[in-house]
Amino acid sequence: MQMDIATRLVAAALALDGPLGALDGIISELPEGEEKDECRGALADVIGIVARHLIFRVYRQYPELDPDR
Q: I need a labelling partner for 26 at 20 to 30 A (CA). Which of 9, 18, 20, 46 fits?
């Protein structure tokens, strides 16, 4: 992956933080139970996929883009 594409990919993936946080807030308003658990699991899956398959992939290839390094 080219550096310019990697940079844009990470920026776009990190921009999902706000909308995903909003989803988390809405899900937290659901009553406890199976529906809430399923929604939490789905959101966790989405976050995990974005992190593992997009962000961390770029950070492995371009460690200089990782702000924690």
A: 9
